[in-house]
Design brief:
Blueprint: H1 2-26, E1 28-33, E2 39-46, E3 52-57, E4 60-65, E5 69-74, E6 92-96
Antiparallel strand pairs: 1-2, 2-3, 3-4, 5-6
Length: 97
């Protein structure tokens, strides 16, 4: 019945989250958009205690407490004071408190 389907969905979501966390603890190579729309390679890692994102760019590591992450916006956002450059559908924006 529907409870079996709900249990399967819950199990599938747990597996997705587990894989995501494992991948992020190992770190992902990304490009970060900096001034005037230029990009710079970086590495984004989730600390093993799951408390911080660490963004390493230009040899400097920036600790971002997860409690300071307000939202993650996938895709294109309209230009605004918060987003001074035009982003495309492949960009994700991390919104901090």
């Amino acid at each position: 019945g529907s409870s079996a389907a709900a249990a399967r969905e819950t199990l599938a979501l747990k597996e997705l989250m587990k894989r995501f966390v494992q991948e992020m603890v190992h770190g992902r190579q990304l490009s970060v958009v900096i001034g005037e729309g230029r990009t710079e390679p970086c590495k984004l890692t989730l600390t093993p205690n799951l408390m911080y994102l660490q963004l390493e760019a230009s040899g400097v590591t920036h600790d971002i407490p997860l409690r300071n992450v307000k939202d993650i916006c996938p895709g294109k956002l309209p230009s605004s004071k918060l987003v001074p450059i035009e982003l495309d559908d492949l960009d994700d924006t991390l919104v901090l408190r």
